[in-house]
Amino acid sequence: MEGKEKMVNRYQEREAKAANGFMMLLVTILVFAAAVCGIVFGAIQLDEYGSGLGAFLLALGVVCTPLGCILCPGFKVLNPNEAVVLTLFGKYYGTIKRDGFFWTNPFCACINPGSERTVTTMGANGMNISFGGTRKISLKTMTLNNEKQTVNDERGNPIIIGTIVIWRVVDTTKAVFNVQNYRTFLSTQCDSATRNISRQYPYDLMEEGSSDEKTLRGSSQEIADMMKQDLQERVSIAGLEILEVRITHLSYASEIAAAMLQRQQAEAVVVARKKIVEGAVGMVEMALEQLSQDEVVQLDDERKAAMVSNLLVVLCGNKDAQPIVNSGSIY
Fold first, then answer.
1. Which pLDDT value is given to residue 204?
2. Mean pLDDT in runs of 10 for the chain (331 residues)?
3. What is the model's pLDDT at position 132?
4. What is the residue-wise DSSP string for 232-275?
5. In the prediction, which pLDDT does 165 show?
6. 8 A C-beta contact, residue 217 and residue 205
7. Per-residue pLDDT at 212
8. Cα 247 to Cα 245: distance, rounded to the nearest angstrom
9. Which of 67, 252, 273, 286 is paired with 233 by a 20 to 30 Å CA distance?
10. C-alpha span between 266 and 261 (Å, rounded)
11. Other CB atoms closer than 10 Å to residue 127's CB: what's the count?
C-alpha cells in the first residue's frame, strides 16, 4: 500500500521555466524580419553580383523562417486563477500558475484531461468535427450540482437526495496525472459519498423518545459536513479541495411517499388531540372550582362525574354539540 501511494504521488508540482513573453515576442519578430531581409537581399545579391554574400543571406533567411515558426508555439497567456501543466516528450516539465504573458519551450505540450470539448455538426453528410477545449486548468472555486439519486436510508426506506459541492483544484499534477478525468472522478466519488453517508442515518424519527438520534431531515448540516469529510478523503488523490457540501433536495421516493404522508398526518392528529384534551381538562377543573366557590349548585360525586363527562364530550368532540334542555330536576 505504501509503495502504491508513492507511485501515485511520484510527481511533485514544480514551477516550469518560463521567459518573459514580450521579450521573446520581440526576438521572434526580429527572427522573421531577418528571414525576410535575408531572402530578399540574398536573392538580389545573387541575381546582380552572384557573390557569396548573397548565398549567405539567402541561407540565413531560409534558416530563420522555420526558426521563427518554431518559436511561436511557445507563447502562453494566463489569466488570474489559471494554470497550465506542461510535458516535454512525455516527461513532466512543470506548471505555470502565474498570470501574465510567458514563453516556454515550444516543444512542451499542455495537458488537461478535464477540458471540455465542443462538437459541431457540419455538412450534408452530418460529419462531426471536434474542436479541442482549452488546455488551461482553472484554479477558481467551482460548483458541482450533483443530480438527484435514489438511495436507501438506515431503515431501508427509498429516499431521493440531491447535493451540491463547492470545490477547486489545489494540486495540478495530481489532477492531471493521477486520474483520467478529474471532473468525472469528482462526480462519481460524490455519488459514492452521498450513498455511503445516507445509508447510515434514517430519514426521520419514528418515535418521540429518540430525539437525540441524528436524521437526514433533522441534522442536515451535520450530515452534509460528514459528506464533505468523506468526499475530501476520496478526492485527495486527484488534488482537489472540497470547500462545502450542501443537501439541496431530500424527500421520500414516490413508492412510499403516500404512506409516509399518512403517517405524518396521523402524528399531527395525535398531537392536536393531546393539546385539546389538556385544554378541556383544565377548563373542566376551572368550571367545577368556580361553581363550588360561588355555591351556585351543590353537586355530589356522581353528578360531578356526569358533568365532567358531558363537558369533555362537548369540548373534545369533532362536531358542534347539540344542546338538550332539561326542564325538570336534575335529580
1. 77
2. 52 86 90 85 72 77 86 90 91 91 90 61 40 72 88 82 92 90 92 90 67 76 91 93 91 65 62 72 74 66 69 64 57 52
3. 41
4. HHHHGGGTEEEEEEEEEEEEE-HHHHHHHHHHHHHHHHHHHHHH
5. 93
6. no
7. 63
8. 7
9. 252
10. 9
11. 9
Phi-psi region of 21 (alpha: psi -120 to 50; beta: other; left: phi over 0): alpha
Task: Give the pLDDT score at 297.
Answer: 63
Q: What are the backbone angles phi and psi of residue 36, rounded to the nearest 5°?
A: -65, -45
The span from the CA of 77 to the CA of 100, in Å, is 6
Dig out the grid coordinates for 62 from the structure: 531560409
- CB of 198 within 8 A of CB of 151? yes
Distance CA 198, CA 202 (A): 8
Rounded CA-CA distance 63/57 in Å is: 10
Coil vs helix vs strand at 78:
strand
Pairing of strands 108-111, 82-88: antiparallel
What 3-state class would DSSP assign to 207?
Answer: coil
CA dist., res. 210 & res. 274, Å (int): 20
End-to-end CA distance of the chain: 93
Give the C-alpha separation, 238 to 172, whole Å.
8
SS3 311: helix
